[in-house]
Amino acid sequence: MMKSFTAAIGAALIAACAAAPEVPATASRFADPASIDAAFPPGLAEVSFESGGDRLNGHIYLANGAGPHPAVILLHGFPGNEKNLDLAQALRRDGFNVMFFHYRGAWGSEGVYSFSHLIEDVGAAASFLRTNAADYRVDPAKLITIGHSMGGFAALQAAARDPAIACTAAIAPANLGARVFAFDQSPELEAGFRAYADSLQMLAGFDGERGVAEIRANAGAFELQTLTPGLAGKQVLIVGSDKDASVSLENVIKPLIAAYEADPALKTTGVILPGDHSFSWTREALINTVADWAAGCR
User: Fold this and answer.
1) Closest listed residue to residue 106, CA positions, set 72, 154, 67
2) What are the pLDDT digits (tens) for 135-169?
3) pTM for this entry
4) What secondary structure letter does DSSP report for 203?
5) Domains parsed from the chain with CATH numbers
6) DSSP annotation string for 153-189
7) If residue 205 lies in a helix (H) or strand (E), which one and from where to where?
8) Helical H segments across 20-114, by residue range
9) 270-273: long-range contacts at Cβ-Cβ below 8 A with a sequence spacing of 24 or more?
């Protein structure tokens, strides 16, 4: 009796599933894979690599299947409290390998932290993935830089210097080039930056005086709006938020989008979402925005 009852329930569930509406493709980003490749399952690989003679710590989220998979280099901000690893997991479920690492002098990686080192470190990460592509099931011809805040600055700067990176995304990117003008207009803003930088014990060899000096000395090179020649032919995503107290929508994000859209050599997508600097209450919208864009970079 129980056996026949169970069979009837099972048949009813199968029929219900068959009749259910088709699940949107984006749902796969928030659900575990329906099946796992036994020979090449999803995994986590701890890695370290050298940049400027120092060892950097990181890991790679490996996607399901033999691949080779397109690979995202996911870059955290300043100092890196928000790491956006929910975005990394969603991209992995979409079939991307995702590399996350800490820059020189940050969070236990060797060396001294600086904004110039950020850009160099992204280049070293890209070189590591290309050199070790077979070990990590990576398609070396399909590397993507995606960064948040200072990581967005690094993502754009590194992509502009690497002709082989065809896609780059900046989420609430910090424009260090524009900071010089902002500091000159507001000594209080500069003093606040100095005080905050002085408090960051997770960044080795870095303080407010060094940070301000580096920004002032590299104002031209650090200006994101002037990167268009290096970004020519690339797909670029800029995401801003309407209540960002750290990266101004009106003074940074909108002018940057406008500058990139004005250059026909760039394939620019600009998106403004509700939220604060970390998109704290629009995470799903952020993930879908980035992942939908990245799907065009496969």
Assistant:
1) 154
2) 999 999 999 999 999 999 999 999 999 999 999 99
3) 0.91
4) B
5) 33-297 (3.40.50.1820)
6) HHHHHHHHH-TT--EEEEES---HHHHHHHHHH-HHH
7) none
8) 85-93
9) 270/237, 270/238, 270/239, 270/240, 271/237, 271/238, 271/239, 271/240, 272/239, 272/240, 272/241, 272/242, 273/239, 273/240, 273/241, 273/242
